[in-house]
Amino acid sequence: MKNIKPYPYFLLFALVLPVLLFRDFTPNNELKYLSIADEALREGHFFTFYNQGEVYADKPPLYFWFIILCKWIFGEYHMLVLSLFSIIPALVSIHVMNKWVEEDTTPRSRWNASLMLYTSAFFIGSGLVLRMDMLMCMFILLALYTFYKQYSGKGRPIDRFLLPIYIFLAIFSKGPVGFIVPVVSITVFLIVKKEIRQFGRYLGWSAWGILLGLCAIWFGCVYIEGGNAYLNNLLFNQTVNRAIDSFHHKEAFWYYGITIWYSIAPWSLLYIATIIIALRKKLLTTDKEKFFLTVIVSSFVLLSMFSAKLDIYMLPLFPFFTYLTVLLLPKIKEKRIAFAVYIPVVAFMIAPVVALAIHNKFEYPHSIFIFMAIGVLFVFSLFAFSLLVKKKLYQAINTAALGILGTLFVGGFALPRLNSNIGLSEMAEKAHEICEEEDIDHYYYYRFRSGENMDVYLHEDPIKISDEDSLFKVYEQGDCMIFLKERDVSRSKTIMTWLQTVHYEKIGIFYLVHPSQGEQLATTLAGEPNVATVSQ
Fold first, then answer.
1. 202 to 10, 183, 193, 206: CA distances (angstroms)
2. Please, what sign has the CA dihedral across residues 504, 506, 509, 514?
3. End-to-end CA distance of the chain
4. Dihedral in degrees, nearest 10, Cα atoms 59, 60, 61, 66
5. C-alpha atoms less than 13 angstroms from C-alpha of 362 in its C-beta half-sphere
6. Which of 482, 455, 480 is nearest to 468 (CA)?
């Protein structure tokens, strides 16, 4: 790729490396995916998935295969290794977009775009968490880029086969959105260009044959493993039903009109203002610009019509917001658009001051790296503001974006102290250690979400306790380790009082309640609270 050196991509990776190295798995999604992969390995099924014995047809197999591969190779799950399946697709997506606009931009403006896209809230967020969305985004971009090469007469013979394969891989990564975005975007663009009769040139019989053939193989394997009930769940419950009257993530039509502002923050105002000004001034003159806008508008409208909505479903549109903006900015006077950068930069200058003023009001393990990260954000934002005053818009954008990444880099080193408030691994490891010492055989958790997925760490299924009476009875039976969340304890005076009569240890935001053979159980007979071991 001309004029695109590899070093910026290594820099983008390096600036988030501490987060990838030190962060714990989040309980609600990441730990669930690991538990599903463990169950698939135990039961020997790789096309149908289950979570604690319940059908989990929400997601296709591809991402779970990567998780299973990690466990198979290393014998355990490593955050850094699994993160590569999110961060590498993010960097590939940036590379594809840079290559797409190469003829129309300078290396400086492509670096501008790379930084803006990379630091957009839900883009960098998707690159740092274990989810299949970024994988789907990458394949959608590859599909659309392949189509546009064919449309502009720069395609290769192999592209007619790659297009349906990329679409299938997008579906195989996340589901129907992987089909909807590329196919609808291509169709609407050809209608706009009054070339809809050429549709078969790009998605003709051979393309549909490849796509349907690959889907048939997938569905056939699902049927063999899970039977008709699982296949029906996959094809209808997770597609048609969620689109028409969703049982999950159901939101109003205007949902994305609100969420888009923070999903692509801090550049949302810049993106939207640039596109609106360009439309009013009729500055969209090239097919590339029109295609980018078509992808945004058609996908935005269609996804808004579906019942099931999540902020992250908009992820494939974010690169087109960014790169359309970069294509249009040279056509707009800087003074018309500078306000859209001033606002986030000033917000970044104020945020560290506010954070320092109120940090004592929050209970969390303190780390020097948190204060260093706050300082980095303030210094870079101050410098970006000075560049804006000097009318150096592009340099200001770069500086603000690097400030965000610098904050993530420095803040990442604080994660080892914060992990007990983020994930469950430290708590589960401590519980397992205690149970080995005290000869405790049973694990229980009180109410909190995703407690069942601690089987990843405990190597056995913890049992859910749903009410207070059962909580007290379980403890009275002995031979148990009970996990309680600080939030649930604080909401119940009965549990708070009960905790003063039992033995417990505190790890982050969790209480580990268990009888102790080696220590005298605390009692309130003398009116004294128990002595708890607190580990932060």
1. 35, 10, 15, 10
2. negative
3. 49
4. -60
5. 11
6. 482
SS (H, E, C) 191-240: HHCCCHHHHHHHCCHHHHHHHHHHHHHHHHHHHHHHHHHHHHHHHHHHHH
d(CA 437, CA 248): 43
Residue 305 backbone phi and psi in degrees, to 5: -75, -20
For residue range 226-257, list pLDDT tens digits in order.
Answer: 999 999 888 887 666 555 444 455 677 889 99
CB neighbour list of residue 504: distance below 8 Å, 6 or more residues apart: 511, 512, 513, 514, 530, 532
pLDDT of 518 above 50? no
For 332-367, write each residue's pLDDT tens digit: 987 889 999 999 999 999 999 888 887 767 667 778
| Neighbouring residues of 104: CB distance < 8 A, sequence distance ≥ 6 | 286, 288, 327
Token match 């609100």: residue? 258
Amino acid at 162: L
Residue 505 pLDDT > 90? no
Tokens of 384: 């970006």
CA 437 to chain centre: 38
* DSSP summary character for residue 106: -
Cα-Cα-Cα-Cα dihedral of 328, 333, 338, 340, to 10°?
Answer: -40
Pairing verdict, β 504-507 and 533-535? parallel
Task: Return the structure tokens found at 89.
Answer: 């697709």
Burial 184-221 (b: 16+ CB within 10 A, else e): bbbbbbbebeeeeeeeeebbeeebeebbeebeeebeee
Q: 482 has which bridge partners? A: 444, 513
**pLDDT one-digit tens code per residue, 402-436:** 999 999 999 999 999 999 888 889 988 889 888 88
Q: How far is CA 430 from CA 148, 362, 481, 533, in A?
A: 54, 25, 11, 12
Q: Can you spell out the DSSP letters for 370-421?
A: HHHHHHHHHHHHHHHHHHHHTT-HHHHHHHHHHHHHHHHHHHHTTHHHHHHH
Q: Which residues neighbour 280 within 8 Å (Cβ) at sequence distance 6 or greater?
A: none
| CA-to-CA dists, residue 12 to 9, 80, 163, 222, 373, angstroms | 5, 15, 28, 38, 17
- Residue among 81, 87, 85, 139 at smallest CA distance from 118: 87
Q: Rounded distance, CA 456 to CA 357, Å?
A: 39
